[in-house]
Amino acid sequence: MEAASATGVLSHLSLLEVQARSHKTQPQQQSRVKELKAKVEALRIQREQLKAEIETHKNLQKLRASMDKQCTHEEEEEEMDEDSQLLRLMARHTQLKDLLHAHHVIGGYNVMKTRQGKGICVSLATAYEGVFLETYNLEIDLKPTMRISRHNIPPYIPLNSLAEQSNLQTDLRTFLDTLSQHLNAFAGRKQQLKLVKELHKSVDVMESNVLCSILVLMFTVPRDKTAVLCTLDYTDHTRCLPTRVHFESEEKALPDSPEWKNPCRLLMETPVHKALIAMRKMGNIV
To answer: Which end of the chain is more exposed for a tag (fewer CB within 10 A), N or C?
Structure first.
């Protein structure tokens, strides 16, 4: 009797244990089902987005093909709904990106045909610190041989020697790149000189030349009001920074003193108008 009772108790306990495990497993299964449903829904949304992108791409391809064959009439644009106008704008955007890429491939120069294709006109824009400055043009004859026929390049830029060094007949791109370097460096040096005169009234510009390859400035040392003559020599005409900086003063030891080593380095590595600001903050000049 006691054995039977014990067996019944054990069976009941076993049943309760099975039920408990079942209750624990059920929330986990429900959680897993919810997770899988959410993943399926996310994949379904991603599929729909990909379908929409593919359809849009197909429409853009069709519009690009039609835009390459014929111009768009304003009357047709007025009849288009908003979606069609948006697609056309997107197609125009991709077309302009392609043109910009092609423009970059040819060196970023604006080139126009002249005299029914017998020549080309190349425009070279100059800029410094994000500010566009002068634009120069040169017309090149293509036949019977390539030669520069007209231009407005400043006479102090060695145009002919640059054309000979770069072999204009076989490597026009190298010639234009080298010429652009010279023009932009000249424009940068000229702009720096202008900024020195505008921003630094206490600094006297004693000398400069038309190429802005020599610049002589006079500083005043605030401690004892000593005058310092500074010569900036730009022997590399493709750069905006000097290749040599030389100080002169009545106080002979001053230019070679340790306190003027840092200003010398600044002027060699920094545009002159910015170097002067730093020198004033350090107390080297008035």
So the answer is: N
How far apart are alpha carbons 88 and 82 in whole angstroms?
A: 10
Residue 4: pLDDT over 50: no
Look-up of token digits 């000229």: 190
The pLDDT tens digits of the residues spanning 49-101 come to: 667 667 666 666 666 666 556 555 544 555 556 667 777 777 777 766 655 55
